[in-house]
Amino acid sequence: MIKNLQTLLTKSLNHYPKNRTYTRQVKLDNLDTMDKLKENLKKSMGIESGFKAIKQDRKHLEQYLPKKQEDLPPRSMEDSFIAGIIPLSTDKDLQDKYSSLDGSVRKGRLMEDMDIFAVMVAQKHICDPNLPEDAPFPQVLVTVVVDKIEITEYKMSVEQDIRISGHVCWSGKSSMEIVVWLEQIDNKELKRVTRALFVIAARDPTNTKAAVINPIKPANENEKMIFAGGLDRKKFRQEIEALNLYKTIPTVEEQHMIHNIFTQKLIFIPGSPMKLKDRNQTVWMGDSTISTNFYSHPENRNLHNTVFGGFIMRQACEATSVLGYRFSGEFPRLKTISDIRFLSAVPVFSFPAIHAFVVYTEGTYIHMMVYIDAFDPITKGSQITNRFNFTYSVSKPVREVIPLTYNEAMMYIDGRRHLKTDSQKLSFKGTKK
């Protein structure tokens, strides 16, 4: 069953056509910067500047919401396309902001940019001819899932501009899948860096219920192919959720695998703690984790006064980079980020904690799982708000991580499932304007 799902995901990602320029080319010198695009988004949403503890009331915007999807005109993928620039080559302050210790570009910063850019694309897709020109955009747009972020082998320079672009590739009644690309401009050539797939949901102005969006009507054969891939990925997400280890028991093969770990990798003496047979080749999962808290300041809020999802993604990415270095002894290379779940909003006044675990290793691959646990200082309660999966690679084989408890065994199996999917040689074919 798991192998069938991996095949389905590969098929869905390869629905992107070989021809990467299926409509038009965009001149690089005509692109708005990310800062300009963010400012445009803020204005269109009617968001006031300055932090206020009480969220701005948007209930009056409900009058502008369309009641039925049939009231909205169909849109093509071309209609939602946007491209922008991160001007690293000319902005020295921006270079400092994006520089990483290994001489490349900080992936966490790029994830922040991709997340808010996906919202911009989603906003452009939604078109209501009946919305008055002076009315703010009524829908609230929230990231639900980041399905997949693939990283190429190209090593980025912090002194070259980065082009960001994307479009809606599938839409349902109230949610849409968006593909976001990052490319670096190297000697006037575009070098592919990432492809990311975001699922954005449209909500009413108070973010309490779903809002309808425009349907997609593919404009040509390429768009039909891409749309079909979106349907496959939706099916993949549904079937993966049905196999959630908190809902169903592991497969027989996975149960045998865990049993073999205990019989082959551990020393068990009744009445004594279990021990690893070979500490040079294996390490406890409980010793392969880090946790940290971070403040979420007003500058980290989104347009709706909760913590910006991209900021949380950056914190999770950088925590796993630290853990990967501690675990392997070298700067790990990020390969994929998958199955990012935004389970609930994080209030600005909360104190989020990051818990990162190395849950599975194989050869030179390291798979990590991250949970965000947000503490509410008013109620004294906490809840899991986000879940992430990261796959890294290093230059030499790493030790095998060994689970001790049943919970760790489930994390081990889940990590193995993700790594088996993430490490497939997925192509970077895709649409580009």
UniProtKB/TrEMBL annotation:
Residues 84-206, 286-398 form the HotDog ACOT-type domain. One of its GO terms (cellular component) is mitochondrion. One of its GO terms (molecular function) is fatty acyl-CoA hydrolase activity. SUPFAM superfamilies: Thioesterase/thiol ester dehydrase-isomerase (SSF54637). Keywords: Hydrolase, Repeat, Transit peptide. GO terms for biological process: acyl-CoA metabolic process. InterPro entries: HOTDOG_ACOT, HotDog_dom_sf. PANTHER family: ACYL-COA THIOESTERASE, ACYL-COENZYME A THIOESTERASE 9, MITOCHONDRIAL. Belongs to the acyl coenzyme A hydrolase family. This is HotDog ACOT-type domain-containing protein. It comes from Brassicogethes aeneus (Rape pollen beetle).
